[in-house]
Amino acid sequence: MSDLIQPDRGQAATTIHLVTKDGLEAWLKPRSAATRAAIAGQKFKGEAGAHAIIPAEGGDDYAVVAGVAGTNLDSWALARLAETLPGGTYRLAPADPACNVARALIGWALGQYRFDRYRKEAPTEGARILLTAQAKAIAPAIAEAGAITLVRDLVNTPAEDLGPGEIEHEVERLAKLHRATLRVTRGEALEREFPMVHMVGRAAGRSHAPRMIELEWGPADANFAHPRVAIVGKGVCFDSGGLDIKPSSAMLLMKKDMGGAAHAIALARLVMEAGLKVRLHLLIPAVENAVSGNAFRPGDVLRSRAGISVEIGNTDAEGRLILGDALTRASEGVEGVKPDLIIDFATLTGAARVALGPDLPALMTRQDATAQALIDGGIAQDDPVWRLPLHEAYRDYLKSDIADINNSPTSGFAGASVAGLFLDRFVGEGIDWAHFDTFAWRPAAKPGRPKGGDAMGLRAAWAMLQARYAG
């Protein structure tokens, strides 16, 4: 996407005029009769997201007039234009000095996203290139658009082509690109060091064998003054439900159950590309929750890295199990230094979707200030999140008669929060921690956001990390 937004150096381009519905009449007054006729003929009223083609001033080429909600453009203000205009180069007409297009650049890029890995037909339109005078905003917009594209591509890829091994290869590629250290634990070592990851994934067999993937990185001037940040992502590449098997209708989207891993990898990429002043620890427990003769069973008691015994109430509540081992490892830190912050992403519960719908990730944190920083980051970047409680009284729902904890209570109440409380048991004492229960999927298209895999909570987390650690 790096060519879709370019600095304006006076290149030949088609002009885009931005108007609000209330400002359309004033904008039309000095225009030619041909322009007014074109506007009337296309029934353009200045509504946000609509546009019309008009004659260009002093030439044979056309121009575009597009409706926006206000002068402070949001991330998606230009996305529909990027989806629908003919291929070519465009520039925004000089506008109100208060008009800030920086956020809208990402929508221009993402409006041209296509997942075409399995399609034969070639695109019918060329690229739409936008020229902007706000040159400093280009690199951040392209970086974030690239990270979101990575999430979409990974989530959209079917499980046969994106198993634990392919997740490992994606992290390995990032490690090589940014000179990071990669550690992958498999086989007997996995069973010994990360027993819950091993138990959840062992039924998938050798072709999709489970593993724990860890990446460690620090900027070129890394030193012990830089705080450690751990990013954890649930990497269930396909979830059949295990022996508590899902109905076929519920399995249709389960290629997206590694959406948390996709978010974590994309956020780590943003951190490394920006050279953020942190020492990064990325952890991806990658498994397939399959059915076979050695699948773990309801009623089994699993060991964990933390030493907490877990009774299995439901094998379809497997994501919290693998995250438990990963969060324990993240809490231990590296070189004796514990993390200043842990962020995890997971497509964890249907309860979060019932409560908040597909657009809003559920956010749970130990500290109010961390929650507010993430909420503020989401508002600033048009990536809203909603906080749910880690209500102390609900810990009773996790009690087991024979083990330290149960992975799936039978009450049916507060499912998202109870899952968050389960994870909280595996995060080290006193460590700042944020948990995103995200859908990672868009069931209906919106401008710049096609139906399919999508990043939800990624930009909110990135905005918070930049605000917290950029200095």
Automatic annotation (TrEMBL):
<comment type="similarity">
    <text>Belongs to the peptidase M17 family.</text>
</comment>
<dbReference type="Pfam" id="PF21337">
    <property type="entry name" value="Peptidase_M17_N_1"/>
</dbReference>
<feature type="domain" description="Cytosol aminopeptidase">
    <location>
        <begin position="314"/>
        <end position="321"/>
    </location>
</feature>
<dbReference type="Pfam" id="PF00883">
    <property type="entry name" value="Peptidase_M17"/>
</dbReference>
<dbReference type="InterPro" id="IPR048816">
    <property type="entry name" value="Peptidase_M17_N_1"/>
</dbReference>
<keyword id="KW-0464">Manganese</keyword>
<dbReference type="InterPro" id="IPR000819">
    <property type="entry name" value="Peptidase_M17_C"/>
</dbReference>
<dbReference type="GO" id="GO:0004177">
    <property type="term" value="F:aminopeptidase activity"/>
</dbReference>
<keyword id="KW-0645">Protease</keyword>
<dbReference type="InterPro" id="IPR043472">
    <property type="entry name" value="Macro_dom-like"/>
</dbReference>
<protein>
    <submittedName>
        <fullName>Leucyl aminopeptidase family protein</fullName>
    </submittedName>
</protein>
<keyword id="KW-0031">Aminopeptidase</keyword>
<dbReference type="InterPro" id="IPR011356">
    <property type="entry name" value="Leucine_aapep/pepB"/>
</dbReference>
<keyword id="KW-0378">Hydrolase</keyword>
